[in-house]
Amino acid sequence: MKVCINCVMDETDPKIKFDFKGLCNHCSNYHKNIEPIWKNDGKKENQIKDLANKIKNENKHENFDCILGISGGVDSSYLAYYAKEILGLNPLIYHVDAGWNSELAVSNIDKIISGLDLELYTEVINWKEMQDLQLSYFKSGVPCLDTPQDHVFFASMYNFAKKNKIKYILNGGNYSTECIREPLEWHYHASDLKQLRSIHEIFGTVELNTIPMSDIFKYKIYYKYFKKMKVIQPLNYINYEKKKAIKLLQDKFNWTKYKYKHYESRFTRFYEGYWLLEKFGYDKRKAHLSSLILTNQMTRDEAIDELKIKPYTEEEKIDDFNYISKKLGISVDDLHELFNSKNKSFRDFKSNYHIIQFFVMVSRILKIERRLIH
Q1: Is 41-365 a CATH 3.40.50.620 domain?
Q2: CB of 274 within 8 A of CB of 312?
């Protein structure tokens, strides 16, 4: 297994390439396309403050000047603090409950909301429909089991913002911790509504009458150009460092740290920490840790040592197999059978892959998207 000499990405990414020195294309892309326009030094902070003032002036007669999605994770929690306390914005905090929140995530969200005196709106997803959609993904054999959750997260907030004429959407996406994107074989586009419907049509048994949906063309084109909605990523304008953000959240709000990125959802913890790794051999930590290496928040040796640690103990595995199977309405034996079933790829089902990748290519040419998406 060939591993990059600079980060910890390796050949489990089927489209990784190495130069003659052994540097991977993720690292070379970062140095060529991301680092020149973004550095974690806070020199662009005046730009986001000017934009915040514009947002406040345009919405001074509204109850809220923007909307901000929160999961309870570090990025969205810190963004809520930064938007309210530093930028002086008054965001409506939006949370989607898809049935898998951990108690810790709920606690962290409550601490942020009460500590900042913000208003929280929670969209609760119809569990029977969500359960059936997620079970369909298990039955399909594809790696991207988190697609149903990811899809309803962004679709719900975009649809809500459009319905309530909220023009500005803040999200916690950032180069600092996410400059390396997980390969599509690990985690396919959650915005591909054609694939989501295709998998559910084959394996689902419940009609999806209420689950929020919005394909990539709707929110990238219709909402953006016709409804004039703008997505802003404030963390890309500031000196955002994960460890410092966690310490601030702990000190100010008694916020509690998670073991790994995205572990605020119990389902995502099981999917990323066990299912994806043990069934497919894909370890998302490699992309997450490599991003921190490139942005000088971690050394390569520290990342290698962390990857040696199994994200799941045997006891946690047994406990979560029982929990996940019960939530999905199947037996533990059924879940083990699905785990041992034939692995499939997103390529085995109908999708808008070629159309989406065309838009990705255009976005890269125009320097709108600077990360590798392959």
Answers
A1: yes
A2: yes
| DSSP tally for the chain: helices H, then strands E | 16, 5
What pLDDT sits at residue 41? 73
Q: Residue 232 has which token pair? A: 């802003």
pLDDT attached to residue 261: 60
Q: Which two tokens stand for residue 195?
A: 């694939």
Q: Where are the alpha helices (DSSP H) in the chain?
A: 25-29, 45-58, 74-81, 103-116, 127-140, 147-163, 175-178, 193-203, 216-217, 242-253, 266-270, 285-294, 300-307, 314-328, 332-339, 353-365
- pLDDT value at 193 more than 60: yes
- Residue 225 has what pLDDT? 86
Whole-number pLDDT of residue 260: 62
From 348, 350, 368, select the one nearest 359 (Cα to Cα): 368
The per-residue pLDDT for range 285-318, each reduced to its tens digit, is 999 999 999 999 999 999 999 999 998 888 888 9
Residue 86, strand partner residues: none
Half-sphere CA count of 323, side-chain side, radius 13 A: 16
Calpha distance 351→34 (Å, rounded): 29
Predicted confidence band of residue 265 (pLDDT cuts 50, 70, 90)? confident
Distance CA 360, CA 371 (A): 10
Instruction: Give the tokens for residue 138.
Output: 């298990």
Domain spans of the chain? 41-365
* Six token digits for residue 281: 């051999």
Starting at the edge strand found earlier in the chain, the sheet holding 168-170 runs 119-124, 91-97, 66-69, 168-170, 230-232
What's the rounded Cα separation, in Å, for the pair 347 and 123? 31
- Coil, helix or strand at residue 256: coil
Dihedral over Cα of 235, 237, 242, 244: its sign: negative
**What confidence score (pLDDT) does residue 202 get?**
98
**Number of neighbours of residue 141 by Cβ within 10 angstroms:** 18
Looking at the predicted structure, is the pLDDT value of residue 266 above 90?
A: no
Is residue 184 pLDDT above 60, yes or no? yes
Residue-level pLDDT at 263: 62
